[in-house]
Amino acid sequence: MKKLDKKLHVGILGATGMVGQRFVTLLANHPWYEITVLAASPRSAGKTYEEAVGGRWKMTAPMPENVKNMIVEDVSKVEEVAAKADFFFSAVDMSKDEIRKIEEDYAKTETPVVSNNSAHRWTPDVPMVVPEINPEHFKVIEDQKKRLGTTRGFIAVKPNCSIQGYAPALAAWKEFEPYEVVVTTYQAISGAGKTFKDWPEMVENIIPFISGEEEKSEQEPLRIFGHIENGQIVKAQEPKITSQCIRVPVLDGHTAAVFVKFRKKPTKEQLIEKLRNFRGLPQEYDLPSAPKQFIQYLEEDNRPQVKLDVDYEHGMGVSIGRLREDSVYDWKFVGLAHNTLRGAAGGAVLCAELLTEEGYIQAK
Questions:
Q1: Is residue 165 pLDDT above 80, yes or no?
Q2: First to last CA, the chain
Q3: Is-catalytic flag, 254?
Q4: What is the bridge-based pairing of β-strands 87-90 and 73-74?
Q5: What distance in Å separates the CA atoms of residue 179 and residue 121, rounded to the nearest whole number?
Q6: Whether the Cβ atoms of residue 226 and residue 125 lie closer than 8 Å to each other
Q7: How many CB atoms neighbour CB 346 within 10 A?
Q8: Residue 67 has pLDDT above 90, yes or no
Q9: Could you please report the per-residue DSSP string of 157-206?
Q10: Active site includes 245?
């Protein structure tokens, strides 16, 4: 793990929303990073962070003292805000076109942006990374910098929260060549930026539609499993994935029920061994937010459960269980990941740590 001379200055774009709040809590005592600027919409600008958030604080942990009196900046004043940090996390709530533009505007000030948003996930030279699975995609940043005309500014993104409970398993099993996958995700309400207090109709309810989520669940793993060609990420052709995404009355934690066909026929013991031994650069570098054990396999028939397992490895690990042979597919299993930690802000913080360790993010 890197030893930094002093903490890097970090800013949060879209700091008042639910993911912005999660970034604030994760960075409050971070060993490498110190929050120096919080930016949000013009209606929040000029207020203290505590005033701007008001009664909309959605985290279970209290608001950190060190941000309460920080004056929120206007996110649209790019040059002014960018001057106050070495890099930014982005969780802005705008249209996709607006997000693409503002993130590029910040990058062009020579300030790296690590985004939680989906707007740049399919920009060909923007890496979309799960740090344990495809860190080599960060190499495309050099091509992106040429396009943007920057020397240190760039954008990197993390993928959708819905894929975190099954894409790591597919990555662990790569040598057995999974080629066809059926997945149904049961997604928590915090994925919509809600709590039960502000979404009472979700209590004792299931909604069988989450806008745009099924396409992300089917396509984003293929981009993660893809490769770089001529300065762009080219998505993998397999496995073919079909999905249904369902909103369920759970606060945090996306569960996935998954069926897989393999070209090579692994045993149950081989599959479990691959899950338990799967590790990547975050574990090798011992990054501050990295889970020691990325994937745990649970033997009990009734696991993983949200109440018991969502906070595994501080919400940064993935829990897999119920691996068994299937009568139509080869194997089936159930996966669980914390959607606002591993699946959102935490995953972005881990990306930033890896980018820092590898020298992409440095002090200005």
A1: yes
A2: 21
A3: yes
A4: unpaired
A5: 23
A6: no
A7: 25
A8: yes
A9: E---GGGTTTHHHHHHTGGG-EEEEEEEEEE-GGGGT--TTT-GGGTT--
A10: no
Query: Given 120, 137, 245, 254, which residue is catalytic?
Result: 254
Distance between CA atoms of residues 33 and 352, nearest Å: 10
Maximum separation of any 2 CA atoms in the chain, in Å = 61
Which amino acid would we find at residue 233? I
Query: CA nearest 278: which of 171, 167, 138?
Result: 171
pLDDT of residue 5: 80
CA–CA distance, 271 with 275 (Å, rounded to integer): 6
Strand locations in the chain (E): 8-13, 33-40, 73-74, 87-90, 113-115, 155-157, 178-187, 227-229, 232-234, 240-247, 254-262, 295-298, 318-325, 331-337
Instruction: Give me the chain's average pLDDT, please.
Output: 97
What 3-state class would DSSP assign to 349? helix
Q: How many Å apart are CA 345 and CA 58, to the nearest integer?
A: 14
Question: Both tokens of residue 214?
Answer: 């099924």
What's the CATH number for 163-338?
3.30.360.10
Residues contacting 231, CB < 8 A, separation 6+: 124, 125, 140, 143, 146
Task: Render pLDDT for 305-318 as a digit per residue (tens, 0 to 9).
Answer: 999 999 999 999 99
What's the pLDDT tens digit per position in 71-127? 999 999 999 999 999 999 999 999 999 999 999 999 999 999 999 999 999 999 999
Of 120, 137, 161, 245, the active-site residue reads: 161
Band (pLDDT 50/70/90 cuts) for residue 32 is very high
Give me the architecture of the 8-160+345-357 domain, per CATH. 3-Layer(aba) Sandwich (3.40)
Q: Is the dihedral of CA 294, 300, 306, 307 positive or negative?
A: negative
What are the extents of the domains in the chain? Answer: 8-160+345-357, 163-338
pLDDT, position 86: 98
Task: Name the pairing type of β-strands 331-337 and 254-262.
Answer: antiparallel
Strands (E) across 7-46 are located at 8-13, 33-40
